[in-house]
From TrEMBL:
CDD domains, A to Z: MFS_NepI_like (cd17324)
Species this chain originates from: Favolaschia claudopus
Record keyword Membrane present: yes
Alphabetical list of InterPro entries matching this protein: MFS, MFS_dom, MFS_trans_sf
Ranges annotated as biased composition (Basic and acidic residues): 460-477, 490-508
Localisation: Membrane
Protein name: Transporter YgaY
Annotated membrane topology: Multi-pass membrane protein
Residues annotated as transmembrane: 51-74, 94-111, 123-140, 146-169, 181-205, 211-230, 258-283, 289-313, 320-339, 345-361, 382-403, 415-432
One GO MF term: transmembrane transporter activity
């Protein structure tokens, strides 16, 4: 075999690549935070050695989601102790949960879209530093106003999970995307559940300040683990500014049929979820059950079953076209809600079954909707996720207000039946747009009825549509205001591809 410099007998010489056709290069970042902190060598971006998104990193994302989102919920069992410690009435401390949620919503709109603009490793670590450090103020302050201001800011910088979710979608292989998302979303749900339990137990035997010392510790643990495990990738959409990111995010809210459909479904689904849990408290505390507050709180632990089933549900979603996975989840959740309407005020066993079923299929619906939303454009996943999560907040407010009003005026059964109305709305929205519609098709059905993702992928590869689909995805990224392809990992120009093909033939 001849050397690369001298072609062998009968071989054609390989022309040199013209200077303008050479592959683009990238500068590997070695430090972060304005050059002061070194990035571990194995985590530095290298286009020749893509980082493997394995179980360890996925578990870290889930763990981080659990104990960052918990910042929003530690306060809920502690309001009475806050009132006594700050020497104010209940109405004054009742503002704290609202401020946390308002801060979180603000962070989703103004901070989480930065995932489409800056390096996400650095953004995640920076937010972890802020949230952990600001929590020190909550633990030591004796001033309610300071506590409230810090609560709002901490809510805003606790959007790390909403940056990790799109990052997981970017890093995970397409065939494992829903499974990866399921771990992060399960972490979110577990954080909501476990925060109240931890806060209640620690405050019962020590002080409410110990709860926040615990929060400081786990957030710095997330920071250390993130520094050691999260890979560095170049920023996306370098040609865009922060305000253009926000402008395009607003544009997506009325120009993307998939996103609008998913958001309308998510809104109604979250309204069902919060209506169920708020009115369940009223139902269990009154006739015929008359349970104590502690017993009612333990029903939330049943939700751990849904969290545990998250990865299994994610695997199912990975095998189905997202539209079909959503449809299965909606019909199953409707069936469990019907049990609540019929027997919720008659049998506590029926309530337990309903809690388990609704948690599992609510999570399945959330994952399938997120998978479909993230398929719109890889370049805009942080912005798309921000709009999707905002629909969740609106649904929560709507479900709490409507459910409480119906329960107090008409009773538990009409309040439960209200959820059936919400599920009916979801089914109508789903059938307005079929499973294989093109990106900008608002109504109708296209592309057949096949439900299995593997069959669709095999057909695309066989017919040559696979490459066309990839080119189409690149065009969609450009339409979204940028690209996700890091510098140095761009598709080679035609001349470079020909040279590489010639080189491979010569080696053979």
């Amino acid at each position: 075999m001849s050397s690369p410099e001298k072609p062998g007998l009968g071989e054609s010489p390989i022309p040199e690549a013209p200077p303008d056709l050479e592959k683009p290069t990238t500068t590997i970042m070695t430090h972060e935070f304005f050059g002061f902190v070194p990035i571990p060598r194995r985590l530095r971006y290298d286009p020749e050695k893509p980082f493997h998104f394995g179980i360890v990193l996925n578990v870290l994302f889930g763990f981080a989601s659990t104990f960052i989102v918990a910042n929003l919920y530690y306060c809920q069992p502690l309001l009475i102790q806050f009132s006594e410690s700050f020497q104010v009435d209940y109405n004054s401390v009742a503002r704290i949960p609202t401020l946390l949620q308002a801060g979180y919503a603000t962070g989703i709109v103004l901070i989480s879209p930065l995932g489409d603009l800056v390096r996400r490793r650095e953004l995640i670590l920076f937010l972890a530093i802020l949230s952990g450090s600001l929590t020190i103020g909550l633990a030591i302050t004796n001033n309610l106003v300071v506590f409230e201001v810090l609560s709002f800011i901490i809510g805003a910088v606790s959007v790390t999970p909403q940056i990790m979710i799109p990052l997981a979608a970017d890093l995970a292989p397409p065939e494992r995307r829903a499974s990866a998302l399921s771990v992060v979303m399960s972490g979110l749900l577990f954080g909501i559940l476990i925060a109240r339990v931890i806060a209640g137990i620690l405050a019962q035997f020590t002080s409410w300040r110990v709860v926040y010392y615990f929060a400081i510790g786990v957030q710095y643990l997330v920071l250390i683990a993130g520094y050691l495990l999260i890979p560095d990738y170049p920023a996306k959409n370098k040609n865009m500014s922060y305000f253009s990111i926000l402008r395009t995010m607003a544009k997506f809210a009325y120009t993307e049929p998939i996103l609008v459909q998913a958001s309308l479904i998510n809104l109604a689904s979250c309204a069902c979820f919060t209506n169920f849990w708020v009115t369940l408290t009223f139902l269990l505390g009154g006739p015929p059950y008359f349970y104590s507050t502690l017993t009612i709180g333990l029903f939330g632990l049943i939700g751990i079953f849904g969290v545990a089933c998250g990865p299994l549900v994610g695997r199912l979603v990975d095998r189905l076209i997202p539209w079909y996975a959503s449809l299965v989840a909606v019909f199953a959740a409707t069936a469990f809600q019907a049990i609540q309407v019929g027997a919720g005020g008659v049998s506590v066993g029926a309530i337990v079954v309903v809690v388990m079923g609704l948690d599992v299929f609510r999570q399945m619906l959330q994952m399938s909707l997120a998978t479909s939303v993230f398929s719109i454009s890889a370049a805009a996943r942080a912005r798309l996720n921000a709009i999707f999560v905002l629909s969740l907040f609106i649904g929560q407010l709507m479900g709490t207000a409507a459910g409480t009003k119906v329960f107090t005026k008409y009773g538990w059964r009409p309040a439960a039946a209200l959820n059936l109305g919400f599920y009916g709305w979801i089914i109508i929205i789903m059938f307005l747009r079929g499973p294989h519609c093109q990106r900008y098709t608002w109504f109708g059905y296209e592309g057949g009825w096949e439900a299995r993702k593997s069959v669709i992928d095999a057909k695309r590869k066989k017919t040559g549509d696979w490459e066309a689909e990839k080119e189409k995805e690149k065009e969609q990224d450009l339409e979204s205001g940028g690209t996700t392809t890091p510098q140095g990992e761009q598709e080679p120009k035609a001349g470079v591809r020909e040279l590489e093909a010639a080189e491979e033939r010569r080696k053979d």
